[in-house]
Amino acid sequence: MNLPKYPVTVSDDLLVYEFFSEGPRGHIRKGVFYTRIGKDLYNLGFGDWIEKLQELDDSSRTNNGDRDKVLATVAATAIALTNRFPAIRIFIEGSTAARTRLYQIGIGSNLEEINEDFDIQGFTGEKWESFQRRRNYTAFLISRK
Amino acid sequence: MGVLSKEKELHGILDQPKIIRNFGQHIYMRTITPKKGEPLMTIDPNIPDLNKTEFAQKKAERARAFIAKHGLPKGEERKKGK
Description:
Number of helices of chain A: 3
Helix content of chain A: 25-40%
Structural class of chain A: alpha+beta
Order of helices and strands of chain A: EEEEEHEHHEEE
Largest sheet of chain A: 9 strands, mixed
Strand order of the largest sheet of chain B: 1-2-3
Distance between the termini of chain A: 16 Å
Number of helices of chain B: 3
Radius of gyration of chain B: 19 Å
Number of strands of chain B: 3
Strand content of chain B: 15-25%
Largest interface: A-B, 51 and 42 residues
Radius of gyration of chain A: 15 Å
Structural class of chain B: alpha+beta
Number of domains of chain B: 2
Oligomer: heterodimer
Order of helices and strands of chain B: HEEEHH
Helix content of chain B: 25-40%
Shape of chain B: flat
């Protein structure tokens, strides 16, 4: 995707990423990580780094005016990971319905481009199906074509 | 195959390693020439392993529980079991 994105720092194994969101609320450290939950199956985690807790948090809304750039950066980490490990499938579930909806909007806005290289399944609450716009999903599964 | 050679295979030519002096230690950071869709990436071997945080473990547990309850898409089950 040719959307603007932040440069990232990444671990050797490409499973952990960090970048800084820049906006009116300042310089906010973000973490993205992929945790193995099954064979070739990884959970995408994402949140703000809370320095005093030395922990990530995904419960707050940053409102730093760069939502699309942050989402594009998170998506780009998935591209980087699956470029290196094409068999990996990525499970995504937002921490809240609003966060899941945000992911859904991000995917829907770039669906044609994403579909060139990826299969995206959405869970409707009852079943998995190929991602379609204007449908609500509670989780997503992304894999390389 | 080492990480470096794997990167060369998949990402093409690596930029020159950047050596940063940090409190008397040399930290080697390498940038990867990004492929289509990738962000500009700098490999930092000292990046905190977020996968070891309680946050990550809780997220993984939640994901496992979701999949145990709802399964994976058809076709993906086969991939999972192969």
